[in-house]
Design a protein that fits this description.
The chain is an alpha/beta fold. The protein is built from 12 helices and 9 strands.
Length: about 270
Amino acid sequence: MTFSEILFSIKDKVAVLTLNRPDTRNAITGFDMLDELEQACSMVNNNRSVCALIITGTDPAFSSGGNIKDMLEKKGMFTGSPTEIMVNYRKHVQRIPRILQSVEVPVIAAVNGPAIGAGFDMTLMCDIRVASEKARFGETFLNVGLIPGDGGAWYLPRAVGLAKACEMTFTGDVITADEALEMKLVNAVVPHDHLMEKAMGIAVKIAKKPPEALRMAKRLIHMGQRMTLPDLLEQSAALQALCHHSEDHLEALAAFFEKREADFKGK
């Protein structure tokens, strides 16, 4: 499939999705960008050999979030009456958390530059975040008279705690990669030229795990964010029973006792 707004590739069980509109600093509120993001993530889910997805941007930015020029000119999703704009948010930018929440494999954000507003929130929707030293992060909606309309108010407190989320939202401050690491917003900060190497290293390590159990583990972690402990334990028992009857589980045990690397088939 040919894309115009993103770059997409799959190699050695790892998919890489690159936001590719440097002319807009990879703004993500365009209709075509969202359609292509959804198509690529669907391809990941439908390809059972894929075990991890890396999302990054074409330099110099990860994503500037909403297209400020479109806001000024009231174009695209920012056109119409208040009711129409509300519907536009539901149909467009709010697709992003739904799309990324639906990805069955671990998602790694390789943050190559500024991730601002909805671009920042997009990194929060990923499971793991690796930052270039050039990365910057900002929940900057109030700076332009807006509120987080894309789900950031749900994700940010879960990432950094309520007090820090309030500080970042109310001040609109943009923080450095090192500050993000200090507050555990990102998993690692690396030199810019080593960003994809670091992200790919994590992805490859993940991709060596049993594919179906890996998808179950991700599903369980996300379910746990909205379930009671008794319900989560019940779900864990059901998924674990499936794992015990998988060929990959038996292969893992055999490899352990035979002191060799396991060869998982996703069965």
